[in-house]
User: Fold this.
Amino acid sequence: MKNQVFSFYESLGEDAVHAMAVFNLYFPSGYDFFELDQETKERFIAENPRINRALLHALNAGRKMAGDVRQSLISARHSESFGRFAQSELGSSNQEQVCLALLNTQLDLIGWEVVFVGTLTEVSASPREIFQRALKANAYAMIIAHNHPSGHLQPSEEDLLFTKRLRRLGQLMALPLLDAFIVTRTSYWSFVEEGRFEDEKGPFL
Assistant:
């Protein structure tokens, strides 16, 4: 992203080297730009009101456009590509989150929602909330993903039991759970890839 910011300043005739030095003070390496608080945003804009305000608008617009395109490109037909997608979305979060992927009959992503946010080490999730969202979106199938901020990739006993329950409910409601992912900053773990899902009618644990 910083290369794009440099080009932005340069294209407007600004001293791009100096502008980037200021930018780096507010957004050092590893800082999540989109978690910017209002006070920091105002101080950054004050450094160069017209240009920096335009930059924030441009970056936010680019993020929204990327999100719109992403939904038509992501498919659940290949677990590895979907696992990497889930990892990019969740892997760096410092709080445990559960996300719901909603799929159409072609297994393309039509919705991606954060359904629960927990603490550093745990999250309480409700199957009812998950199915309500899937039914409201008229989804054909779904996938869930959650992150482990600790970096430990293996599922806990609670993860196993919750996923088993969700999958059985999906079978009863004709709204199948196709896979479940655990992600960290560096990798992902898939129930399907690890052989935890068998045929739709059988147990997977």
